[in-house]
Amino acid sequence: MANVSAAMVKDLREKTGAGMMDCKNALAETGGDPEAAIDWLRKKGLSKAAKKSGRTAAEGLIALGLRSKKGVLVELNSETDFVARNSQFQALAKNCTLLALESSTSDVEVLKQFAYPGGGTLGDAIANAIATIGENMTLRRAATLEVGEGLVGQYMHNAVAEGLGKIGVLVALESKGSEEALAPLGRLLALHVAAANPLAIDPAGLDPVLIAREREVLAGKNEGKPAHVLGKIIESGLKTYFKEVCLLEQVSIHAEHGGKTIGQALREAEKTAGVPIVVSGFVRFALGEGIEKQEGDLATVT
After folding, report:
1. Which of 67, 106, 112, 287 has the fewest C-beta atoms under 10 angstroms from its C-beta?
2. Would you say 79 and 135 are in contact if contact means Cβ atoms under 8 Å apart?
């Protein structure tokens, strides 16, 4: 039997909302594998959360930059939220987006080699900020989104300054429509992505591994049913899953869309604009998602 620690049980409970003993049993049954334990709980109908991207624990800022038909997001992490309010740190985050816009690269290691305003490289600037401010900092990731025609919509949640905040979203709209007509739609869609956190534009864009995993969970929850019945249940369950995680199939969060899906709202926007509008991509960065934060008193960390 796997050695299941109290910390493992606590973490699983936070991710699923299941009871402590259920979480302990799930970890014991799955050899201590947290992802397998989540599926075990879901199959038993004990998990209150279908999916979690991981505990958000790192501090710092998400920075967003736009130029013409291109948008970039970067995540610059620090140890404390206090540093994220530091003007030097904020300037560093903004300059990261400027360099990302100029270079069109999403590789942070490559990005750190680019010349930084005032001399040296971006990597040097980060090292200097660490020495000056006294906290470790990491340029964790970057993403670029670009359109041939149309625009890139944007939204920043919990903004602390222009283009700086906790959740940043870019949505690419390919269209011959005017920027005046597309900009409000781009913002509405970006705000929806920030709130609803879709995994893909449509089912075709989902990772096949995710779909296979969902099939397995549905089969486990309905074990013992006749094959022909089970097949229908699984297909129905997948349709529900797609409505939960695919952007175009999600119900819009906006009241002005009147309970329509994003796909339906997009078709209405096309009629108003008089031209086709295609969502060709989106990027959503939430600060620190998937990073475990070190617990304890910072004053005692050496």
Report:
1. 67
2. yes
